[in-house]
Amino acid sequence: MCLFLLMSIMANTATRNFFVVYLLGGMVVYFAYGIRHSKLAQGEVVIDPFTGHSLSRDELDELLAPYKRHRGLQGDFDAPLGLFLQTATARDVLARMLRNLKDVHRSAGEAKRLLAVQQRLVVLLPRAWEERRDRGLVCAELGLVDAATCDLAAYLEHVPAASDRALVEAQLLALGRGDASSLH
């Protein structure tokens, strides 16, 4: 019934134009007010990475209390809350999620899914050579010799003082791709 009444009122062009202008004006006012008065505009929204809920200042202080106590950051040495918080970019959040997923698939022994996650990490973080190494190791596990060799050699080239250099060189030799001394 209400829809019928609304449609009959809207049949008139002048009435329809009035409603459209009124609706657009209301939306502009609504969003302008919301943006100006939201916590997002003030930069005060902190999301709990475990629950996804927004945390208040009191909740943040409560979560930090054991850490502050352990480090002796109470009383005269109390540090402001802002020193403990860092802004996370979308890239940082996505990398964190992918690394968590990487650990899940590694623990479950799901090499194909692990490779898919590693592919995304390498695209997202092209200069994170450890991710390139990890992708190479997964490729080696799946028998993708050319891809494994390429990634492992790139890792050794870009991280010459890698603590796991000997292990990666041994993996390259096991792949049958020549002399590890040529990688130095």
Largest sheet: 2 strands, antiparallel
Number of strands: 2
The Rg value, from CA coordinates, equals 28 Å
The low-pLDDT segments are: 178-184
Mean pLDDT: 81
Structural class: mainly alpha
First-residue to last-residue Cα separation: 81 Å
Report the sheet-strand fraction.
under 5%
The count of helical stretches stands at 9
Q: How many structural units, i.e. domains?
A: 3
Task: Please give the CATH architecture of the largest domain.
Answer: Alpha Horseshoe
- Give the overall shape: flat
Strand order within the widest beta sheet:
1-2
CATH superfamily of the largest domain: Tetratricopeptide repeat domain
> Which fold does the CATH topology of the largest domain refer to?
Serine Threonine Protein Phosphatase 5, Tetratricopeptide repeat
Order of helices and strands: HHHEEHHHHHH
Output the CATH class name of the largest domain: Mainly Alpha
User: Can you give the helix content as a percent range?
Assistant: 55-70%
